[in-house]
């Protein structure tokens, strides 16, 4: 089989609407605590955010709590401040029995053939409990620490090539790459064609979906042609609806249908007042110097998604309510945390309503988190997720009845 990098993935990636949204949880592999902090070592983290070390004893508890609470998978980040996700999640498969692992890897730091070998071994030994989160990287400083000096758009060209090759290899195909014209008219920088790449007896009965995030035009082209699930960070509903429509349209040009996932923090309590009191506590505990340092670093990044997060809070305020950028959507966490920087704040019923609204816009999967991740996995899984499922089931039944009435 020859992989053509000039076009879209030709694998079976079209999805059908599920009975309800999927819910996943986050593994805090840089350490955990009651307060948010940075994810990478480039930024650094406060002691309050890392009181609980990222060791197997603690992360095993988080994984088991998420499994007990009914989450489908655990998102494991990748970066200088995180333990290696392949090694960590392989270990955690021995501490869990059902929950899947959404393992992040940095595209371009290893051969697509090696990545496919690692993924195939994982799915074989873990009974298929694997999903892949393909990370291009939006922080040039961190990328240089890995020896990667490609500019922004070149990184995404390379990502498209890697996703196409990994998908084909995991499907049991032989990959012989031909860069005639390459992606978007030229070969990915720094890429050497694969010749005769093929896995030995791959576990093809365990499909591995490819998750992918990115908000730039270059990233959206990759999502439209290569991703199974496009991950979005929490923005106001109107912005999310616009992005979903744009990527759906791009994917349709290539005959593809994507699923969409939303990455959000949640601060959910029995009452709205209790939840907002916790948001106030988190904001009051942030070190102003850490906020300033984080914002300077974010401003130097070439990530469009990070710029969209920063634009929501404009550098911060002493008032938690002023950081509410849409009903119950709070941007305070993004003052110090790169990446996903927004949280839904409110009672279990209120937050469930907001998540159901995102579901109605086209979100198929939610990747949630809360501080600290151990206790919040149980709270969110037991109190919030059932409420969302009930709301979305009612909405789905209503939609089905309307369709039947028209028919």
Automatic annotation (TrEMBL):
Name this protein carries in UniProt: LLM class flavin-dependent oxidoreductase
Entry keyword Oxidoreductase: yes
Record carries keyword Flavoprotein: yes
GO biological process: alkanesulfonate catabolic process
One GO molecular-function entry: alkanesulfonate monooxygenase activity
Signal peptide: none
Gene3D superfamilies named among the record's database cross-references: Luciferase-like domain
Keywords: Flavoprotein, FMN, Monooxygenase, Oxidoreductase
Annotated coiled-coil segments of the chain: none
Residue ranges of every copy of the Luciferase-like domain listed in the record: 23-365
Region (Disordered): 1-20
Recorded superkingdom: Bacteria
